[in-house]
Amino acid sequence: MTNMSMATGPGLKPSPIRASIDLDAPGLRHGFLKLPHSSDASAWGSVMIPICVACNGEGPTALLTGGNHGDEYEGPIALYKLAAAIDLAQVRGRVIIVPAMNYPALEAGRRTSPIDNGNLNRVFPGSPSGTVTEKIADYFCRNLLPRADLVLDLHSGGRTLEFLPFAACHALDDKEQEARCRSAMEAFGAPYSVIMTEMDASGLYDTVVEEFGKTFVTTELGGGGTARASTVRIAERGILNLLRHAGILEGAPEPVESTLLTMPDEGYVVSEHHGLVEPCLDLGDPVAEGELVARVFDQRRTAGATIEYRAPVSGILAARHFPGMVQAGDCLGVIAVPG
Fold first, then answer.
1. Domain 263-338, second-level architecture
2. Domains of the chain: which residue ranges?
3. Distance (Å, rounded) from C-alpha 74 to C-alpha 150?
4. How far is CA 162 from CA 60, 271, 313, in A?
5. What is the Cα–Cα distance from 76 to 101, expressed in whole angstroms?
6. β-strands 61-65, 46-56 pairing
7. Per-residue confidence at 201, pLDDT binned at 50, 70, 90?
8. Which residues contact 176 (CB under 8 A, 6 or more apart)?
9. Residues facing residue 261 across a β-bridge
10. E-assigned strand segments in the chain
11. CATH topology of domain 18-261
12. CB 294 within 8 A of CB 269
């Protein structure tokens, strides 16, 4: 059993999470990150987050994660399959697999944790004395990220968004790090590759990973609260491509034709109304600035207001709201710009 925390100091509590397996010793191990949690259902219970570590010889460490949000399924599916099938003899270095970072959310099929309503991807770097979700974030920051050279966090749109299947990295101030991330993103080999600009980067896993100086790739591989055979295949191929790119697995990444996109700040179309949404474009459709993206109807009456939302920039529709009803503040769509 490993130590609670790699980083301690005056006033800094150790993490309450214990790994049931050795994260550093050679070999293939399956176990849990065990977080004590007392509840009505289990007075001395624990949140048990599955983890797999394959460590063989000298080489880099890849940290592969899914289930940061519990209603996004391609990542967990692909990573559970990898953990069950990984051949230790083919590994050079170390692979740490956490298919369901926010395990309570995955079990509930929710974006956020049913325990504390915590959105894991908004609470980093977390706290060892905070909520269950904050404790998970803290453990990653102090125990897993320091071990990693390459980090892949697999996302999709969940129940409320649908995306073109893409891998992504961010524009960074450190251009050497940005180049590493971009090279890894291209190696992943999704149908689309996106240089992302976040609406709000505070509290993101992405942000702390990049602040650690790590090579980081993320994805959006579909959505609507389900997985598709095609998007699971993209995730599986991309994981293997990334491990080959890092030299952890032998061979070259499988070449895939990928369209490069950027997501500018002004590309987000946000509803200011409640109502029934009519999508006027499908994912991947080209759109000119000022062209109709969606209409929102007042569903309460037959002569209700109809509001038109138009593209703020020219490009292609890279993401859209998924359910048929929207609330004020919901993202109706995202326009990405080729190149």
1. Beta Barrel (2.40)
2. 18-261, 263-338
3. 20
4. 33, 16, 20
5. 9
6. unpaired
7. confident
8. none
9. 194, 338
10. 18-19, 27-36, 46-56, 61-65, 93-98, 150-153, 161-163, 166-170, 192-196, 215-220, 259-262, 268-270, 275-279, 286-287, 292-297, 306-310, 315-321, 325-326, 331-338
11. Aminopeptidase (3.40.630)
12. yes
DSSP annotation string for 114-155: TTT---GGGSTT--TTS-HHHHHHHHIIIIIGGG-SEEEE--
Buried b (16+ CB within 10 A) or exposed e, 81-92: ebbeebeeeebb
As given in the structure block, the two tokens for residue 211 are 């602040």
For 61-72, the pLDDT digits (tens) are 999 999 999 999
Max CA separation in the chain (angstroms): 70
In the chain, alpha helices (H): 74-85, 103-108, 132-139, 175-188, 205-211, 229-246
Are the C-beta atoms of 39 and 114 separated by less than 8 Å?
Answer: no
* Distant-in-sequence, close-in-space partners of 331: CB < 8 Å, separation ≥ 6: 161, 268, 269, 270, 271, 319, 321
* CA 297 – CA 306 distance, rounded (Å): 5
Residue range 154-184, pLDDT digits in tens:
999 999 999 999 999 999 999 999 999 999 9
Closest by alpha carbon to 335, among 290, 299, 272? Answer: 290
Interatomic CA distance for residues 83 and 134, integer angstroms: 26
> Alpha-carbon distance 212 to 320, whole Å?
32
H helices of 189-254, where?
A: 205-211, 229-246
Residue pLDDT, tens place only, 95-115: 999 999 999 999 999 999 999
167-187 residues labelled b (16+ CB within 10 A) or e (exposed)? bbbbebeeeebbebbbebbbb
Strand pairing report for 161-163 and 259-262: unpaired
97: left (phi over 0), alpha (psi -120 to 50) or beta: beta
The DSSP 8-state label assigned to residue 90 in this structure reads: G
